[in-house]
Amino acid sequence: MRYKHVRAGSAEQYGVNGGEMTAILATGKDTDNRVTIFDSQLPKGHGAPWHYHELDDEIFYIISGEVEFGVDKKEFIAGPGDLVIAGPDVPRRFKALSDSKLLVINTPSGPAEGFIREISEFGDSNPPSQADKARFIEQYKIHLL
């Protein structure tokens, strides 16, 4: 029987891209590799560049703020209560237009979890190299475009 209670502020946390704070609320280990759930705090101007995932659906639920999305060939703004889904092989990007809070769900779990842990080592002054990007594809099946 699985059970987990995550108290506010106690989840595994990573600072990403020099501003985004991501807490991993539920891991693959917690869910028999079914889902990973992230709590993401995106300061205005921060987000993720164009990329796609080979294996997992990525689901964004906007709790607060406004986030500009590019998904496939569409661009739009999502606000509180909006949900955005990008499936496997669908290019996507996002950028906070104001300080924003999102719940991000990846299913199945695994690749995005490892990617978040590793990408937190990089920042604006230390971007991933081509070798790093190739490793992200090999290990996590996530392509930075």
Task: Walk me through the structure.
The protein has 145 residues and is mostly beta strands. It has one domain (12-144): Jelly Rolls (Sandwich), CATH 2.60.120.10. 14% of the residues lie in helices and 44% in strands. It has helices at 111-119, 130-140; strands at 12-16, 20-26, 36-42, 47-53, 57-64, 67-71, 74-78, 83-86, 92-96, 100-107, 142-144. The chain starts with 11 loop residues before the first strand and ends with a strand.
Which key terms come to mind for this protein?
145 residues, mainly beta, Jelly Rolls, 6-stranded antiparallel β-sheet, 5-stranded antiparallel β-sheet, 11 strands, 14% helix, 44% strand, globular
- The count of domains is 1
| CATH architectural type | Sandwich
Uncertain regions spanning at least 5 consecutive residues: none
Number of helices: 2
Question: How would you name the oligomeric state of the polypeptide chains in this document?
Answer: single chain
Strand order of the largest sheet: 1-2-3-10-5-8
Average predicted confidence as pLDDT: 93
Q: Regarding CATH, which class?
A: Mainly Beta
Span between N and C termini?
40 Å
Strand tally is 11
CATH T-level fold name:
Jelly Rolls
Order of helices and strands: EEEEEEEEEEHHE
The biggest beta sheet is recorded as:
6 strands, antiparallel
CATH superfamily: Jelly Rolls
